[in-house]
Amino acid sequence: MTEQSGGTAQQGSGAERGLLAEARNIRGLLLVVVLLSIGIGLIVVFQARLLATACDRVVMHVEGLAAVLPLAALLVLLATGRGFCSYLLEHTSAAAAARVKQSIRSRLYRKIQALGPAGLVGDETAPLIETVTKGVDELEHYFTRFLPQLCLAAILPLLFLIIIVPSEWRSGLVLLFSAPCIPLFMILIGRGSEKLHRRQWSRLSRMAGHLLDLVQGLPDLIIFGAAKREAEAVARVSEEYRSATMSVLRVAFLSAFALEFFATVGTALVAVIIGFRLLWGILSLQEGLFILLMAPEFYLPLRNLGLSYHSRMQGVAAAERIMPLLARPLPQGFAGNLVPPATPPAVRFEGVSFRYGGNRGGVSNVNLELPAGSITALAGVSGAGKTTLARLLVGMIRPEAGRILINGQDLTLLDPDAWRSRLAWVPQAPYFTAGTVRENLLLGRPDASEQEIHNALEAAAAEQIVRQLPHGLETLLGDRGAGLSGGELKRLALARSYIRKATLIVLDEPTAGLDPENERLVCLALRRLARDKTVLVISHREQTIAATERVAEMIDGRIERVLSTAEFLAAGEAFR
Amino acid sequence: MTFVGRFLNLSRKQWPWMAAGVILGVLVIAANSLLMAISGWFIASMAVAGQSGTAFNYFFPSAAIRFLAIARTVGRYGERLVTHSATFRILAELRVWLFKRLEPLAPAGLERHAGGDVAGRLRADVDALETLYLKILAPLAVGTVSIAAALLFLLWFSPPSALVMLLFLSLAGAGLPILIRRFSEEPGRKSAALAAALRNKVTEGAQGIEELILLGAVDRQAAVVDGLSELLVAEQKRLGRINGLATGGMALLAGCGGAFVLLIGSMQVHSQQLTGPHLVMLLLFCAAIFEAAGQLPAALHLMPAAQESARRIFKLADTPLPVPATPLVHQQPHHNGICFRNVSAAYLQGIPVLRDVSFDLPQGGSLVLTGPSGTGKSLLLELLLRFRDYAGSITVGGIELRDLSRETVLAMIAAVPQRPHLFNGTFRDNLLLGNPAADDEQLRAALEDSALDLWVAGLPQGLDTLIGSNASAVSGGEARRIALARALLKQAPILLLDEPTEGLDAATERDVVSRLIQRKKRSSGGLTMLVVSHRPACLKLADAVIPL
Q1: Which helix (H) or strand (E) holds A507?
Q2: Which residues in chain B are contacts of A213 at CB distance < 8 A?
Q3: Comparing C-alpha atoms, which of A312, A310, A246, A269 is closest to residue A181?
Q4: B187/B235 Cα distance (integer angstroms)
Q5: Which of A455, A464, A524 has the alpha carbon at shortest distance from A488?
Q6: If residue A565 lies in a helix (H) or strand (E), which one and from where to where?
């Protein structure tokens, strides 16, 4: 967060390079946008010329309707052409925006999933979600507004100047010399506001996280009577956001102010010059009025560029979060391509170490063997590194030292997808999507048959749960499985892992939260399931451990000892 | 349109700011149109004077041009600042209002709304309401007032031109926008709904990434996200095209309007009802005033999406209270005894989970509820927290729970809920939630009793270590113990614990249980405990055990 608020210019230009690279994918459409805009510019020139001619005829030569009618008819024709071009322009812009947003969002989301937990260490969830959804949308105007306007600001004023100078070079000079002041001031002022704007983005995502956090924790806030206090915090955070944004805007609007100031003064000056030359009879009203009408048009592309400068800052700020993610290298050790064994694997940890950074736990120098088809319990106090070991085994994270051998083959050499398809894992807090029970059960294998679902529910002692639901399997689960108890969710997660045809099963505290009767049922199911599979069960519950064959005990990130289950339980008995 | 009324009512404190923004907007448009009009008149008059050799007082018009040029630039800057400031003020007010409305709904009233989505709605939709004043209401007001004033101005010089412009301006300001609005209603509504659905799916994908990867469901999830994104982008593209209709139509109408005023004006000049310079003035004025009408289609274009956001916000805020509002009579329980008589309750209406539960828990007593999962143990604790309503009778200190205000009840209770939430902040922040005034000694005691003291001492920054979002930096067992310490810190006379030792190993569990027993002894009968657990170690906490 602090790094972003520092907002180095280098980071910004890197992000902008990324945006320009993306623009290359839609350059055809962008070219059409620019050409249409130039076409509209030319129509504007003809409209001004026609109007000036008509006024000249009416005012100076007091001609009647007959002299004006053909001009008016032409004006209507031009207006139709301009309207049509404007429509085509927006149409093309919308197509370009759609293509670029879809492409970036798709790649970004897939990249985040490809990075996985190992590649996203230190990234918070809320800003990631923000980046994929709103962040990508905020790129749109960089491509459809800023980039075309940048081209037009270079082309159109020059074009208009070429048309104006032959008839009135003095006014041309005024325009020529006032024009460069505009980009100059815009850059001077824009620099300052860009830094502020970048800080703004991190503030916005922090505010998003804050609100998400408070709403998710509302029950806890209520329990501790802190909801009223936190309502004040919401007010405070919003107020901070307001004052920060306003200080950005005060500066950002200043550049628009400078721009309008020069454009308005330039136009006024041109009007005065033309006025006196008309008074002295040196210039015709037709030429004079034409130039007066063209003066605001001369500044218009520059003003539009100034307005789109905000789009640029917004786009670059969003790109600063998107581009580094897209460019982030995939975590090491996930590029293996060997086919994992189809039979229950034999697993061997050899001197495996992994630390979470600081002294925040992990495992060090673990040596452990899980024979093929065995069922092993992993016991130990909380914080001993049991879950870390399980995460290493399923390949969520890679060892910093040592290796994990699957049938003698290094896990990092196996094809990660193929490996994952051979295993089932039930974590401590299983994840449920906001869908039906059936959708959640089929998450791992959408093609499972009705019979397989039935068998899995039976095996996980979860039949009863589903039967009690109002719509059975079609009942909608709310967020985080709301409506079901922790134990019930555990059993559904077990059923989900049963449906997946795995050869290696890793269960993290499968019976925590279950009453003794349910624990007994799950343990029975566990035994049934363990047939022809290698199983690792994290648990320190006696009854669950009793369902295993051997017990590895962890202390402080190390394997302390490996005993047969009978020995372990006997030792436990003696200890008590 | 009722949502506009409700929005205005909610933001009534900011009316002065909102009105100031509109007034400045009208002044800017007036200054701009008059600047062009007077410049045109000035030039034409100078040309006429030059041709006829008559004198022309050019001091007034050049002074007016100078003044209007400055008024326009300064006014525009002021208008932008004022309207944005008003917007953010409204925004802050809406956020707080909504948070306060959600508070009495949690958790039962919010269950049907996905958690990621509730926060997403709160943020994205309140953000979308930002467009209601800044991009919709203010431009509509400014445009309408400016057009009316401009027509009066035209009427003064050339009534027939005013009539023509009335036609073209109402086509541009009302006809076109209504057409645009009809076209964009459906895509606007769809894109708001799709954006919410996309956010939901992305949230799921990000929060459940580990299991999605291991279940081999990432690609399917990515395909769903792609599909939603594609639909959303297609709707946004449609909206962009409709926007093109608006700008194109505006260019067409402005050009045609100018041509007709030219025709009418030239006839009037010919019949000497209008001077030549005045015709030039009116032509330039008409071209400039279309700027005012030009805001209207864009504003109405955004209306459907804002309406959808507003609808969802108000729907969420209007969710009926899961527990009836607190009574007016203020009662204070005299002791901490709890009594259940024939209590029935349910998570979902019509599927009772608790049926006819009765028990007595005297002041200072402790009770452990056991039983298989799904029998409503956690629900029973939620009843005491007034998260859900019940049938039958529950009394606390001899007074019916229903007749007590939520504040009174919660002041007496500290609880570790089934799934405690830890907030993104430091350990200290999370602990102090239980009791903001706690001193170091109380903190130390609470940490010790939750068997956290050694662990915290081992952390590099101790209590000031950050927990991370969704408690990502702590294990499940640690999170539960932090929640326990937080509850102990509150030192309330009633303690509700839902599986307080879940995820703890046997040794730590024994330690925590014995410390809880000691704490209870120290309170010398003042602490009433209701524990949900089926861990044998926790049974030691109980004077009585009730199987559910």
Answers
A1: strand A504-508
A2: 423-424, 469
A3: A269
A4: 5
A5: A464
A6: helix A565-575
pLDDT given at position B115: 47
The answer to whether the Cβ–Cβ distance between A212 and B123 falls below 8 Å is yes
- Is the Cβ pair A133, B195 closer than 8 Å? yes
CA dist., res. A267 & res. A269, Å (int): 5
> Which of these CATH numbers, 1.10.10.1760, 2.60.120.10, 1.10.10.10, 1.20.1560.10, describes A2-327?
1.20.1560.10
Query: Residue A231: which of B99, B110, B283 has the nearest Cβ?
Result: B99
The region of weakest confidence among A51-55, A153-157, B122-126 is B122-126
How far from the centroid of its chain's Cα atoms is residue B362's Cα?
A: 44
Q: Which has more pLDDT, B325 or B490? A: B490
Sequence ranges of the domains in chain A? 2-327, 347-575
Site from A37, A44, A59 to mutate, B interface, most B CB atoms within 10 angstroms:
A59
What are the helix and strand counts (H, E) for chain A?
Answer: 23, 10
**Tokens representing residue A358 in the block:** 């600081």
Domains of chain B and CATH, by start: 2-317 (1.20.1560.10), 338-547 (3.40.50.300)
The residue type of B377 is K
Residue with tokens 């094809």: A415
Q: Comparing B200 with A212, which gets the higher pLDDT?
A: B200
Q: What is the DSSP letter of A414?
A: B
Å from B152 to nearest chain A CA?
23
Question: How close, in Å, is residue A394 to chain B by CA atoms?
Answer: 8
Architecture of domain A347-575: 3-Layer(aba) Sandwich (3.40)
> Looking at residue A80, what is its pLDDT?
96
Chain B: give the shortest CA distance to residue A567, in Å.
18
Q: Do B66 and A268 touch (CB under 8 A)?
A: yes
pLDDT at A311 over 90: no
Q: What Rg, from alpha-carbon coordinates, does chain A have?
A: 35
Residue type present at position A294: M
Q: Give the model's pLDDT for residue A305.
A: 83
Q: Which amino acid is at B168?
A: F
Beta strands B366-370; B528-532: pairing state: parallel
Which is nearest to A501 in space by CA: A538, A466, A449?
A449
Helix (H, G, I), strand (E, B) or coil at A399: coil
- Whether residues B123 and A208 touch (CB distance < 8 A) is answered with yes
Q: Residue A148 has which token pair? A: 């075309």
CA angle centred on A513, ends A510 and A516, rounded to 5°: 90
* DSSP category for residue B14: G
Kindly determine whether residue B433 and residue A224, on different chains, have CB atoms separated by under 8 Å.
Answer: yes
Chain-chain contact of A513 with B62 (C-beta, under 8 angstroms): no
Q: What is the ipTM metric for this complex?
A: 0.79
- pLDDT value for A191: 66
From the list A125, A208, A478, A494, the residue with the least C-alpha distance to B419 is A478
Q: Chain B: give the shortest CA distance to residue A54, in Å.
A: 8
Residue the block writes with tokens 């799950």: A522
From the CA of A512, how many Å to the nearest CA of chain B?
7
Q: What percent of chain A has pLDDT over 70?
A: 89
Mean pLDDT, chain A, whole residue set: 83
Q: Each residue of B104-120: pLDDT tens digit?
A: 887 777 766 544 456 66
- Distance between CA A112 and CA A107 in Å, rounded? 9
Are residues A281 and B50, on separate chains, in Cβ contact within 8 Å?
yes
Q: Rounded CA gap, A475 and A461, in Å?
A: 18
Verify whether the Cβ–Cβ distance A90 to B502 is below 8 Å: no
Query: Tens digit of pLDDT for each residue in A117-152?
Result: 878 776 777 788 888 888 898 899 899 989 999 899
Averaged pLDDT for residues B471-490: 82
Q: Would you state the pLDDT for residue B116? A: 47
Residue A122: both structure tokens together: 């230190």
Residue appearing with tokens 């009809």:
B182
